[in-house]
Amino acid sequence: MKAYEALPLALKGLKERKVRSALTIMMVVIGVALMTALNGMASGFDVFLNKQISNLAPNLLILSPEPFIGERFGSPQGPSIVLTDASLSILKSLPKVKEVYPAYIGGVKVSSKGKSLDKNLLGLEPYVIKKIVPSIEIHSGSMLNTGQSNGVMLGYNVAFPPDGPFAKVGDTITIEHSKVVEQAGVQKMVKDRRSFFVIGIFKPTDQITDNMIVVNMDVAKTLLKKESSYDRIYILTEDIKDNGFVESGIKQLYGDLVSVTSPQSIIKTVQELLSGWEAFVASIGGVSMIVGSIGILAALYTSVLERTREIGIMKAIGFSRGGILLLYLSESISIGILGGIIGLGAGMVAGQILTESVMRSLNAPPIEPVFLPESLLLVFLLAILFSVLAGIYPAWRASKLDPVVALRRE
Amino acid sequence: MSLTNHYPLILEDVHKVYRIGEIIVPALQGVTLKVRKGEFLSIAGPSGSGKSTLLHIMGLLDRPSKGKVIIEGKEASLLKEREAARLRNEYLGFVFQAYNLINRMSALENVELPAIVKGVSREKRKRRAQELLSLVGLGDKTDRKPNQLSGGEQQRVAIARALMNEPSIILADEPTGNLDSKAGGEITKFFKKICEEYSQTIIVVTHNPEVAKATDRTIYLRDGLIVEERVNK
Ligand SMILES: Nc1ncnc2c1ncn2[C@@H]1O[C@H](COP(=O)(O)OP(=O)(O)O)[C@@H](O)[C@H]1O
Ligand SMILES: [Mg+2]
Is-contact B63 B86, C-beta < 8 A? Predict the structure, then answer.
């Protein structure tokens, strides 16, 4: 028999037992869809985070005082290290350090035309932005000048939030900062607000930059009521290769009192997280594939038992053992192919829904799942491999049936 | 002309022993037989005399415990499984008492099946299947499933299937056993016809004397031995 002739015969065999075949195919669909969806979500994260980080200068190290958390919860003792101009010169003098730039950062409420948003205010010398985010571009307006105290730059998402435009170039917006201070043993909330002109709006860049409000450093210092310490020091090394060297130099200087982040280290952390996720995906997928395979095995084995007589007839007609084997393996491969195709489609839809709902429940930015052709192909081939493996035993049993015994059975 | 051209099938001292645990059942105890080309041979005998066993051995579905089976000059015991399957496919056509059609396939697809195994092109085998079904009087029922056909019609489909690859021998095990005398008579007549018109060699197992009388020669089996041989006029 020509091998390709087996496929239509196999499909006819599957069609004869519609319900059983459909259920078996469903099992494969579930396994394939699960793997596709979870994989698509992981790739979506990967692509998203890489995009975020790729905008940052690769030779950038971001230094901030530890503990971050304490600061956020208004810890009374505040950061336990003070980053001053003296710290800047020390850092600058470290070998392989090219440039250092300080910055202030703090949460603010911005209002325009009756609408208000909670955002982070970044205070630095305006020219530094281009140094740390080289790919940044101006969408409209112009760049803030150094020393311009009534001007503000807005990230794309601040100016154009999803629910409609917030402010455009030339608009006046107010920025309000509240801080809890202690006066004579009594805690009190102090509010400070100022008006600014929107000088320029950045093009969409990455999640952090898009949600940023940038003012000159001195303006941020007074508005945020900062005292002696900078919140961030951006360090540019001479080359990416020197990042590790500079980082260990900083650690020698400050130990655990500061945290040092770099695009490289973020990528590494994210990749570790993702590889954990991928192992999880693989184990879930593996289990569902095995369950699916057992389903195929059971369904085909039952068919072989039911068709004992028919297999006898086939042998009388001239099917060899190999021919019968081919026929039954074609049935299991067909299950794998059909289940695989439907599963890929279902998995892509499920991945979209799953990623959207996970992102919504985490209040995270909308991340799109990414379905890489090579992972889709891999999942598809796995489905076929598992279905072939599941078909081997029933097919082998069918092939070695004694035709005389099969034909004598009434 | 070589010897085997005269005798598409030769059996020499064929024995078959079945074993059920400790018990030994001698189904065939030394059958020697030559079947001429174009001969219409019947095998008769009481139930359990070994008729089906003999037919299975002739059809390479079973192997003798002892003795030789020679089909178209090829000794069966020397054949590998694949070669035996090929011989069944190309040289032998089976017809069973229970019709044994594949239920999910139409009449035409059933008839095509041996040609698919042989590797005949789609177009060619469809045309031949159509012709054969017309020959057995079912040219207008080619798309029917077996359960939409009467017993006699199903058996005619089975005969068309057996003829598909132009076999050298047709082997039929009580082909009229499930049919009424009218339908059975038509089957017998059809066998007679293809034997005379196409000099098709046919071996039919039967315990119906009417069928036996229609054949060229009848051998009688009892306890796995040929006890009588009769040439029918
Ligand atoms: N698989 C088997 N195992 C044991 N005994 C068998 C088997 N097949 C047939 N027999 C025995 O062999 C003898 C011949 O059977 P069979 O060829 O079917 O006879 P017939 O077709 O003439 O009725 C019977 O006694 C039967 O019981
Ligand atoms: Mg019998």
Answer: no
Give the separation between CA A321 and CA A396, rounded to whole angstroms.
Answer: 8
Beta bridge partners of B110: none
The C-alpha atoms of residue A343 and residue A380 are separated, in whole angstroms, by: 9
Task: Report the distance separating Cα A154 and Cα A142, nearest Å.
Answer: 11
* Ramachandran bin of B50, using left for φ above 0, alpha for ψ from -120 to 50, beta for the remaining angles: left
Kindly state the tokens that stand for B119: 């590797």
Rounded Cα gap, residues A261 and A267, in angstroms:
10
**Span from the CA of B159 to the centroid of ligand 2 (angstroms):** 18
Please determine, for the modelled complex, whether the ipTM score is greater than 0.90. Answer: yes
A320 lies within 8 A of chain B by CB: yes
H helix or E strand, kind and range, residue A100: strand A97-112
- Residue nearest (by alpha carbon) to ligand 1 atom 11: B27
A224 three-state secondary structure = coil
d(CA B211, nearest CA chain A) in Å: 23
Domain segments of chain B: what residues? 37-63+78-231
Chain B residues touching A320 at Cβ < 8 A: 81-82, 85-86
**Ligand 1 site, CB within 6 A:** B 18, 20, 25, 27, 45, 47-53
**pLDDT tier, A409 (very low <50, low <70, confident <90, very high otherwise):** confident
A331 near A24, Cβ under 8 Å?
no
**Is the pLDDT reported for residue A271 higher than 70?**
yes
Is the model's pLDDT at A68 over the cut of 70?
A: no
The pTM (predicted TM-score) of the whole model is: 0.76
How far is residue A157's CA from residue A170's CA, in Å, rounded to a whole number? 17
- Res A71: pLDDT: 47
Selected for mutation to probe chain B from A317, A327, A331, A399 (highest B CB count within 10 Å) is: A317
pLDDT tens for B174-217 read 999 999 999 999 999 999 999 999 999 999 999 889 999 999 99
Domain at B37-63+78-231, CATH homologous superfamily: P-loop containing nucleotide triphosphate hydrolases (3.40.50.300)
Interface test with A, best of B18, B28, B100 (most A CBs within 10 A): B100
Residue A382 Cα to ligand 1 midpoint, Å, equals: 47
Q: Which residues contact A31 (CB under 8 A, 6 or more apart)?
A: A285, A288, A289, A291, A292, A339, A343, A383, A386
Helix axes B122-135, B151-163, angle to 10 degrees: 130
Ligand closest in space to the Cα of B65: 1
pLDDT, tens digit, 9 for 90 and up, residues A17-66? 899 999 999 999 999 999 999 889 888 888 887 777 777 888 899 988 87
